[in-house]
Structure formats: C-alpha cells, structure tokens
User: Fold these one by one.
Assistant:
Number 1:
Amino acid sequence: MTEIFGVPVQALFGQLLIGLINGAFYAMMSLGLAVIFGLLNIINFTHGAQYMMGAFCAFFLLELAGIGYWWSLLIAPIVVGITGIIVERTMLSRLYKLDHLYGLLLTFGLALIVQGLFTNYYGSSGQPYRLPDEFAGTFNLGFMFLPKYRAWVIVASLLVCLGTWYLTERTRLGSYLRAATENATVVQAFGINVPRMVTLTYGFGVGLAAFAGVMAAPIYQVNPQMGANLIIVVFAVVVIGGMGSILGAIVTGFGLGIIEGLTKVFYPEASNTVIFVIMVIVLLIKPAGLFGQER
C-alpha cells in the first residue's frame, strides 16, 4: 500500500476530501456572516439557527409536500431569507446606531429561541433526508472513490462563493452596497433606497445560510443542534479571514477545512482545536484578520 509520510494514501486523500467538504460549508456559512457584517455591521449570531432552518425547510418540503431536492434548493433560501427580512425590519433596524454588542445579544437570543422551538417539537435526534437519485454512486478516481454528492457540494459551494464575491466586488450594486456602509446619506442622494437595500442584503446573507443548510441535509441528519455545532467554528473562520471580508471568508473557509482534515491524519488529538489555535495566533499577529482592514 502506497504511503505518504507514513500515512496510507487512501486515508490521507479521504481526510483531505472530508476537510474540503467541511471547508465548503465553512466558506458558505462564513460568506453569509461576512456579507451581513461587512455591509450592515451586524454580528449575526442567528446564522447557525438559519442554517438549521434551511435544512428543516427542505425536510418539510420533501415530507409534507413531496417537493424534492432541486426545488428545495431554490425555495428554502427564499423562505428563510424572508424570515430574515422580517427580523431585520422589525428588530435589527432599531439597533444600527447602537454598539455592535446590542445586535450580537439580540441575534444570540433569537438563535436560542429558534433552536429551543425546534428542539421542543423534534427533540435532539436527527431526521433523515433522502439523497437525490442523481447523486447516487461514486466516481472512481483510481486512488479513492469520491461520492457524487460530495463532489456536487464542493462545486456548488465554489460557484456560490465566487458568484457572491463577484456581485459584491465587481458590480454596480456591490459598489452601492459598500458605499452605503461608509456614507448612506450620499448614496441616498443618488436616488438609492438605502434601507431597502440593507434589508435585502440581510435577507441575502440569511439565504446563503439556508442554502448551506439544504446542501448539508443529505450528508448530516437534520436536527435542531446542527447550527449550534457549526456556528462557533464559522465565527472563528470569519475572525481569521477578517470580519466583513468576502474573499477572506472564502479562502479561509476552504483553507481551514483542509488544515483540519490534515490534522486528523497527522495529529488527531488537535483536530478539534487547530482552528481556534490558528485564530489566536492570527489575532496576536494581525488583529483585523488575514484579509481584513483596520476600521
């Protein structure tokens, strides 16, 4: 059996694949957080609950309405994004002129409420979500078998991440959004409805979390704790990449997923803490994050 640094090549590439898949979810989740913080200055602790809501929305659509995976991938982010718009209009919009801490406390409380409601009705056990028929089976890469759905997760997350980066950094809409964070009055003078743009931006960020939840449903069981188990790691990813940095969220998400996978091969005892160790080191050297800018 071929080995690399004393590790069987199948085991090494298997953990790299797992790391890349985890990185895909880290990137999609941290991307939504970066969009919301970068353009609204809100630390959205409800993001994990909204990720879980996306998975549950796909589960409900399949079990109650017979709507399959592809339509759920379209409908669930819109539905959850609308709930985010309602939250932004009724609650968060009142906090924009206050310290970031108030938004964090509000979204943290909302996350506990949402998670508690779902736990009350469904308990802590997971609900299975059927793998789409199109993705049954594997690709034979010669040195390992790659499940088709895992390959789709990686490709789809890259498309979503790069599309979001292009939208915010290379389009007129993105320039309006970035300008509104610096001087909303000037942007409104050009006839742009800034409050509506802010609301839709928050809904878009929430929709990204829900999209990730639908993508995760066939891999992980749908349960109320799935967001809580992920959000702390995702916040660490955002801090390392730089709060509000779209590119930082993408690069750091995938990169840390791969590092975590490699750590499980060479030093398994540190696999659960390696991301947080990296976060501490980055904060000591560059407090704004790898791609962040001092505010």
Note: The mean pLDDT is 89.
Number 2:
Amino acid sequence: MNDCIRLTDLTFQACHGALPHERRIAQEFRVDVTLWTPLERAGKSDCLEDTLSYADVADVVASVMAGPVHNLLESLANDIASQILSRFSVTKVGVTVKKMAPPLKMPSGPAQVEIERHG
C-alpha cells in the first residue's frame, strides 16, 4: 500500500539525551511521522471519520516528547511509534526524530534517527 499521511517538522523543546546537561536544559527536537493507512474511502467520502486525525497523532507525539526522559533518540522514536501503533489503525508507521543541536565538538546539522514499525 502506498497511501500515507505525513506530518513533518513537529517542533518541541524537551530534555532528552544521555549527557547530564541534556537532561536538565531543554533543546529543540523535530519529529516527522509517516502513517501508512488506506485513504481511498476518505478520498471518496470527504469525511474525517474515514481517515486519521493528524491532530490526534500530533497530540500523541507531543505526549511522548513531554513524557519521561529518554537517553537515546532511538528509544524516543521507538516510543512514539509504539504509542501510535497502539492507538491508531495503521499498517506501518515511520518516525524520524532530529536533535537540532547535538552535543558535538564541531559545527553540524541535526543528529537524527529514522525507524519504521509495522502494525
């Protein structure tokens, strides 16, 4: 199936990381979520009841980001994917978590992990 709903650049200030200062001082994270689910019915009906509410999905992501601290981006992404799979009828979910200013000794872009999980 190729039908999907994508949310990109959901932006959060949160305290996740393995280093002590990352667990105390909020930093910027961005999350992308892709949800594979049949969309033909919604395409024909034009009714919210026939699709997923991306606002509800974003609320789940926000809850995980505001929840218990994760040491690793991998764990954070896995928790988001697990929460989505447990609440929504999707065949697969993809999650990318980006730490916008990773603690590196040189200038860099974000550090990110990307995972896919099947329902």
Note: The longest strand covers residues 4-14.
Number 3:
Amino acid sequence: MPNPFLSDAWLDDAQKLGEEAPTPTGAAADLVLNIKIQDAPDGPKELNMQAGKFGRGLVDSAPTTVTIPYDVAKAMFIDGNPQAAMQAFMAGQIKVEGDMTKLMAMQSAGGPTPEQAAFQQKLKDITA
C-alpha cells in the first residue's frame, strides 16, 4: 500500500526496497549526502543517501549537506526530475553546505540506466 513521501512508513518501505537498488556508477557510487527537508508534511526530516540508498538521520562523514523543499525532493527522488532540482537551486530554494563538487559531478553523470529507471518506478509505486 502506498504511503506519503517521507512518512515513517514510506521510509521503512524505501529502506527495504533499497536492498534491490542497482549499484550506482560514476560519481554516485561513492556519494555520501546528508539531506534536510524542513517542510515535510509531518515535520522536518533528516536523511542521508549512501550508494543510492536512503537512510534515516545525518552521517558525520558526509562531505555535503543539502536543504531541499519537500516538493522539490519529491520531484527529484520520486518523479526523477533533475530539472526541478536545478531550477530550485537557481532560485535559491536549495542550500548546499560543504563540498558542492560532489553534487555537480552527480548532475553531469547523465540520465539513469534502465535498472535505475526501473528502481525509481518501484519507489514511485510505494509513494502515495
């Protein structure tokens, strides 16, 4: 049953689903990223992404922390819309602390592989 994006139930499902995630390639393979979402419907969320998988909380070793609006996070991670992230960044809606080169390398990596696109569809399927 689909759950609202970033709800506790959704995070549980996304973490279980993460076991099926394809191994990231290029810049995403070793990316450790902290993600803060202040305006999630059930309160602020602090997440991390390591090797393409979501985790709860922030990671001390992450070189980069991004603060992203809820709707932009959903467009990026669920809808697979990298243009939403670029537009939000240019409009000052995304704040980056730390090593921005990691994000830039990921941005230039190109589109998703067929395996990544299939996995993204699975994320979309668990999201209300």
Note: The radius of gyration is 14 Å.
